[in-house]
Specification:
The strands form 8 sheets. The protein has an 8-stranded antiparallel sheet with strand order 18-17-23-14-15-22-19-20. Strands 2-3-1-4-5-11-6 form a 7-stranded mixed sheet, with helices on both faces. Strands 29, 34, 35, 36 and 37 form a 5-stranded antiparallel sheet that branches. It contains 16 helices and 37 strands. Helices cover 28% and strands 33% of the residues. It is globular, with a radius of gyration of 29 Å. β7 and β8 (175-178) form a beta hairpin.
């Protein structure tokens, strides 16, 4: 391992579906001599790409779980995480970006900035990850890298600058012109491993000089030395230009754009040079932790291996040797035999084996120094736990976990499957924070929920393959919510007299709609409700939120204000006030004009222009509201907001009505009130279910 932290790069490769992330990683591993043969992602030889090690990934030709690897390029050590593109596996991207210092945003020269590119970009913003862009597939017909650079500016608000221009395009694409060194770069040999530089072709010289001016102009904002050189008309050296661009990248104020075609083995080596020259090393990034003893005060971590250890477990996997914990060390060193503390549980853990990963193969090492990503064996923890040296009470901020949007009921076929299913669910929920499972108390069904149909389909398939658990899946249920639309008052007395001391509690106040899920506001003055009973009131109200009185869906968006009440010196108790809160809630809720809300999804359909009308019709049939549509070359992109309950099975209908040419992505947008007709349907269904249960 390279001990010079300046020469370490932790990068992620993330992008929209099918932009070529895994293919690009495969080429990077080949050129850095980590692997000696290239296999295609959807290859006929049945081997599949190195980073897609799961059988399901090889079959479907998609990435499901992010995989880590490392390689060396020109004296720099590069740790790479290849992430999935599907929105269903968005947590894999979240957790990878949480621990990485830089990222490569891959864009398709034909598709440009697509819906998922926007999501990935927002995730990079959330964790302030500096990035460089790589426009892939320049060899495809319809490829136009400069249109994509413009989209980076318009759609994502990046200050995008081309560092290269293509030599030829589409079928004639055979290299790039490097605007920093003003040389043309060609890739020769069977797999493009021989890089040959040459003079810039005469027909491209004017364009290259013009684009170089743009690059120098953008870079001069970040370097006084460069500005002076421009003003004094001195020669601008390569180092001066690279250093200026690097400063801009570190501040996330400039996005350098590289071009190439990973599948055709062109443009990958200059991208690797760009990773070395432009992306930050662990010491360039400010990492912060919170001090749990000093009221979560922010502490800046040093990337010094000599300091006490701070590390974050960002991903768990169940391997054949027990639980494997992927870990990123921010400060200090994790070595074999060390004792560390899990900050969340306070338990001490002794490190047994330390390994570093190359997809699903591993290599034993002695220690993981600051700035590196490695893995530990046999440590019990959850995703997002912080480990520190004993006597250090720092915790890293955890990652953002989106809430699941779609649920399925699953039923095991026999007793053996039931046992295996519970093992599988235990493991999957531990590994993936966006995959949730619970047992519905009313129906007794086991419900699994996740980020989309594909997400759940993959997990059900993995249960069958990895755990031999045969399960049947039922119609998914949509996470409806109830809320109130107007203010309503309550004044409720709970009294009960049995033998011995009775129960007495009175509370008064009102409910009103609010933006947040639940707000409890105590405005009782003069001690009419003793302070020790206030938490009991809040507990009573919270308990009512779990299942609404209208249709038994969870209640959100309610502010409860209590401003008066009464107690009894003997008969009042916490239990009495909890019951009073429940009664008060039910009394006010009945008057507050409750309505049902349903999840509305942002759906983006990409379809050939000839099917535009048909696709809009399909969305309208599903109670969709078309937000906008735009033509992008031969494709038309339609954005709409559609209720989740109407989206089941949409993929099949969409494919059959567009000859399989259209694809869509969807993500949660907001909760909105359901129309009266739908609410009546839900009411009927509820009544029927109750009747059947009785």
């Amino acid at each position: 391992m390279n001990s010079d932290i300046q020469k370490v790069r932790n990068i992620g490769i993330s992008a929209h579906i099918d932009s070529g992330k895994t293919t690009l990683t495969e080429r990077i591993l080949f050129y850095t001599q980590r692997i000696h043969a290239i296999h295609d992602v959807k290859g006929k030889d049945g081997v599949g790409a190195t980073m897609d090690s799961m059988e399901l990934e090889k079959e479907r030709g998609i990435t499901i779980a992010s995989a880590a690897t490392f390689c060396e390029w020109k004296g720099h050590e590069v740790n790479i995480i290849d992430t999935p593109g599907h929105v269903d596996f968005t947590i894999e991207v979240e957790r990878s970006l949480r621990v990485l210092d830089g990222a490569v945003l891959v864009l398709c020269a034909v598709g440009g900035v697509q819906s998922q590119s926007i999501t990935v970009d927002q995730q990079m913003k959330r964790y302030k990850v500096p990035c460089i862009a790589f426009i892939n597939k320049c060899d495809r017909s319809g490829g136009n890298p400069f249109r994509v650079v413009q989209q980076l500016r318009d759609k994502l608000g990046h200050n995008a600058v081309a560092l290269q221009i293509p030599v030829g395009l589409e079928a004639k694409f055979n290299g790039v012109v490097d605007l920093v060194s003003m040389k043309a770069v060609y890739f020769e040999g069977e797999n493009g491993e021989t890089v040959r530089t040459d003079a810039v072709p005469a027909e491209l010289l004017d364009e290259a000089l013009e684009k170089r001016e743009e690059l120098i102009d953008a870079a001069s904002m970040f370097s006084d030395e460069l500005t002076e050189a421009i003003l004094e008309e001195r020669e601008i050296t390569e180092n001066m230009l690279i250093e200026a661009v690097r400063q801009g990248v570190l501040k996330r104020e400039i996005t350098p754009v590289f071009m190439g075609s990973a599948y055709k083995n062109k443009g990958v080596q200059p991208l690797l040079d760009g990773v070395n020259q432009l992306l930050p090393c662990p010491a360039d990034v400010v990492n912060e932790a919170l001090n749990t003893e000093k009221d979560e005060e922010v502490v800046t971590l040093s990337s010094n291996p000599g300091d006490p250890t701070v590390a974050l477990a960002f991903k768990l996997e169940d391997g054949q040797y027990g639980q494997l914990t992927y870990i990123r060390v921010y400060q200090g060193v994790l070595a074999k035999g060390d004792t560390i503390v899990n900050v969340r549980t306070g338990k001490k853990v002794k490190i047994g084996r330390v390994v570093r990963m190359h997809a699903n193969q591993m290599e034993e090492i002695e220690s993981i120094p600051a700035g590196y990503i490695g893995a530990l064996f046999g440590i019990d923890c959850a995703s997002g736990d912080t480990f520190t040296s004993p006597n250090l009470s720092l915790t890293m901020t955890s990652m953002f976990v989106p809430t699941p949007v779609i649920s399925l009921a699953i039923v095991p076929k026999d007793n053996k499957s039931q046992i295996n299913m519970s093992k599988a669910l235990n493991r999957f929920t531990k590994e993936d924070p966006t995959f949730k499972t619970y047992v519905d108390e009313e129906t007794g069904d086991t419900i699994i929920s996740g980020m989309g149909e594909l997400h759940l389909e993959v997990y059900v398939e993995r249960m069958r393959r990895e755990y031999k658990a045969e399960v049947d899946t039922g119609q998914p249920r949509v996470a409806y919510r109830e809320t109130i639309t107007r203010m309503a008052e309550f004044d409720y007395i709970h009294k009960k007299q049995t033998g011995g001391s009775g129960q007495y509690g009175r509370i008064a106040g009102y409910l009103e709609p609010c933006e947040e899920d639940f707000i409890f506001d105590n405005q009782v003055t003069g001690g009419s409700v003793p302070t020790q009973y206030i938490p009991a009131c809040e507990k009573g109200f919270r308990a009512c939120m779990v299942k609404g009185p209208k249709m038994e869906f969870p209640v959100t968006g309610v502010k409860v204000v209590i401003n008066d009440g009464a107690s009894h010196s003997v008969d009042s108790s916490e239990m009495a006030f909890q019951a009073a809160a429940r009664g008060g809630f039910l009394e006010a809720y009945a008057k507050a004009a409750a309505v049902i809300h349903e999840p509305i999804m942002k759906v983006v359909v990409e379809t050939p222009t000839e099917f535009q009308g048909g696709v809009m019709g399909l969305l309208n049939q599903r109670r969709g509201i078309i937000v906008g549509s735009q033509d992008e070359g031969p494709m038309c992109v339609i954005e709409a907001q559609v209720p989740l309950s109407e989206m089941f099975g949409f993929s099949t209908v969409l494919r059959s009505s567009t000859q399989g040419k259209a694809q869509f992505t969807m993500e949660f947008a907001a909760y909105k009130q359901v129309p009266k007709g739908v609410a009546d349907e839900l009411n009927k269904k509820l009544a029927k279910d109750k009747k059947n249960a009785a």
